[in-house]
Amino acid sequence: MSINLKSLISVFKAEWIGSDTDIFVDHISIDSRSLQNGSQTLFFALSGVNNDAHLYIPELIEKGVQNFVVQYIPENCSGKANFLVVKNSLDALQEFASYYRDLFDFPIIGLTGSNGKTIVKEWLNFLLSPDYNIIRSPKSYNSQVGVPLSVIAINEKHNLGIFEAGISTVNEMVNLEKIIKPTIGVLTNIGSAHDEGFQNLEQKINEKLLLFKKSKVIIYQKNEIVDLCLNDFLKTNDLKDRKIFSWSFTDNSADVFILKKENKNDITIIQYKYKGESFSLEIPFSDLASIENAVSCLLVLLYFEYDFATIQNRMQMLYPVRMRLEVKNGINNSSIIDDSYSSDFQSLKIALDFLESQKKKNATKTIILSDIVQSGFSNEELYTKVAQLIADNKVNRIIAIGGTISSFAAKFPNCITFPNTAEFIAQIDSLNFNNETILIKGARSFQFEQIVSLLEEKTHETVLEINMDSISHNLNYYKSKLADDVKIMVMVKAFGYGNGGLEIAKLLEHHKVDYLGVAFADEGISLKNGGIKLPIMVLNPESTSFPSIIQYELEPEIYSIKGLNAFLKIAREKNLKDFPIHIKLDTGMHRLGFEEHNLSELIETLKGNSSVKVKSVLSHLATSDEVKHFDFVLSQINLFDKLSSKLISALDINPIRHILNTSGISNFPNAQFNMVRLGIGLYGVSNDPAEQKYLENVGTLKSIISQVRTIPNGDSVGYGRRFMAEKETRIATIPIGYADGISRLWGNQVGFVIIKNQKAPIVGSVCMDMLMVDVSNIDCKDGDSVIIFGESPTVVEMAEALKTIPYEIMTSISQRVKRVFFR
User: How confident is the model at residue 238, as a pLDDT?
Assistant: First the structure.
């Protein structure tokens, strides 16, 4: 892509402010943190509720970016770069993508629905790629921003596009349709996702159908409601000549009627009728969702007029789709970013940005990369671009696996090559992986999962999966509740509420939050050693930790005269000046803090003292989540305002003031002061059921079945024989117990786990390292996945059953349980 800026002035209806319009750009960016930004970048400064990219333009100019699409020119930036000034920069990005899409004329498959979009897209890419040079949405780039970024990646070598479109409310699809302009429309499963954004199911279906206004064919599963909506859509838009290609399990009037589906050992044989003839195909899945997704793919192949032998041959090779980047602990103090099932140019850009955001402090950045498929470029052009991309991202070591990429090794600095994965594995011990952040990215045929397994630190089979996208979503949800000038401190104490402190802190730093909060100095030191540069406040510092706090530039909360004097003594000894401290006021929690009668002594101690600077004044709400105590909360807020104002006036200072926690942010918006402290809400838990539906689950605790056995009537299970079988019973043993953080009170049929989407009650006592469940009604086997908590049961449900709070459930998960972070 190389676009002349002059041509975009009319596209955006923009005001040009710059030196020369005869400039070409070949890279579009919306992320100021990307190392891929450079002189040929056109940066769209998006401005939303939670962030304003205009704020980062000065530092982008310093890094060499010269071309910007903006809503306003930041102060002191005029004359330093070229600006296309528009009313709305997101609209401009979408208009550019629409303009760019019109430069190409080849079939485009547009996918929408509630579930299955990304899987169908990836499977269609696999099924059609032997015959087409395909451009597709990377990962799940299906939003108002993701779709234009996907389409902008088209180049002149592509001859088929597959793009997905996701919406969460009305009036969104019309924008995406103008960008994708699909010639072939595929409607996947319609479910409950994003129901809150629509009045009813019909409105949601009608909105999704708008993607297909210009499609030559619409492929979908027949359904009474969808049929009614589709008929109205065709009639309203005068599209009576549009080809409709349908399938069904139950309606034999469909173009493709599924006569029978038979499961055999995780394989499904599908018998279907098409054009009066019966056919059969086999897919390597048995769950209903995969069967539905596979049939959607079948109809696309039939529409493309593939012969039945080719259809059968390719569809029996379908595979599980990995839709995320995972961060795992590796051997020898390394970190692994697992992207071992895809290797295309667009997703490489995404993975390299993620590598930069997750790199360990002072660690070597390494990439293990296979041959790249479906780029649309010649090999010479492709690997020149890849080499430049890797150089821009300052990758220290490149390990290239595959005959094609190896032949271009001279383009890469510090590059080691191997002809195939087996040769690499044979020599893996000689490569000395140590203190590295390793991106493992390979085409599926290279089987890089073997490399991940060898480099991954061997630990517990039980894992806590942390969804980094959900953390970002929850952060932005609470940010949207804040006034523009209110700062945000995020609490990452107690190992990030059990989720993992350093990795989450890196993400929060990426999002440019204002402060991090920890309970003790060692937590803050660990974050600083991990490379975190954000200011970190220590809420419960012990006087013995003051020297370390100073050494690592942490910021202590001071809550007593004794503690203040102890810190001042050390500060004077070290000749400190204006070292930041935070003054805690007790307004009714009666845990820690200066009370009103201490204020005069506090003021006298601080007056004229140049060793420290009061960075903030804070207090802690005792009951911000209980309506019956709201009057008490208001009295705390009023007392805080009174005491902090007195302190500020007496010392003639201008500190940050903060009192609101997660519940306080939602329930007391008028008390935001200068900053709020976000805690458990970041991790997807709210005390308000009405608010809970807007948050996304962050942590999913998973394990596997170690063994399944059948016991006869009258036999017992576990210590104390607390479960006695009243009939022949199938029992599954799972390797997780109270040493991992599962309360013994959750045993004896109080709690349950999820296996194959079904509840399996816990029977007998929870052991130290194991628990047992009844799987009599579940078709499962050794090695099958088990969900301990996540979407179901939630930590809120567990807490209610155990008469405790979600905090205790989350923070109890042992650190011997491996954390896996993914996007």
Answer: 86
pLDDT value of residue 625 = 83
- Alpha-carbon separation of residue 585 from 230, 549, 598, 642, 644 (angstroms): 62, 21, 10, 11, 8
139, 328, 493, 528: the active-site residue: 493
The answer to whether the CB of 70 falls within 8 A of the CB of 45 is yes
- Among 428, 417, 819, 490, smallest CA distance to 681 is for 490
For residue 374, which of 103, 105, 142, 155 has the smallest C-alpha distance? 155
d(CA 665, CA 487): 12
DSSP code at position 751: -
Q: Which residues pair with 617 in a beta bridge?
A: 583, 657
E strands, 287-360, are 326-329, 335-339
How far is residue 174's CA from residue 170's CA, in Å, rounded to a whole number?
Answer: 9
At 676, is the secondary structure helix, strand, or coil?
strand
Whether 628 sits among the annotated catalytic residues: the reply is no
Please tell me which residue in 13, 319, 394, 719 is annotated as part of the active site: 719
Query: Which residue type is seen at 250?
Result: T
Residues 676, 703: contact at Cβ < 8 Å? no
Find out whether 713 and 726 touch, Cβ atoms under 8 Å: yes
Can 552 be counted among the known catalytic residues? no
Q: Which residues does residue 368 pair with via DSSP β-bridges, in sequence order?
A: 399, 440
Binning pLDDT at 50, 70 and 90, where does residue 500 land?
low
- Cβ atoms of 420 and 406 within 8 Å: the answer is no
CA distance 616 to 247: 63
Rounded CA gap, 664 and 670, in Å? Answer: 10
Determine contact, residues 211/178, Cβ cutoff 8 Å.
Answer: no
Q: What is the pLDDT of residues 55-113, one digit of tens each?
A: 999 999 999 999 999 999 998 899 999 999 999 999 999 999 999 999 999 999 999 99
In this structure, which amino acid lies at residue 87?
Answer: K
The CA–CA distances, whole Å, from 38 to 74, 89, 340, 383, 567 equal 19, 19, 28, 19, 46
Cα-based torsion angle of the residue sequence 565, 571, 577, 579 in order, rounded to the nearest 10 degrees: -80
How far out from the chain centre does Cα 798 lie?
24
- C-alpha–C-alpha distance, residues 630 and 651, integer Å: 31
Query: What CA–CA distance (Å, rounded) separates 462 from 466?
Result: 13
Residue range 582-631, pLDDT digits in tens: 999 999 999 999 999 999 999 999 998 999 999 999 999 999 888 889 99
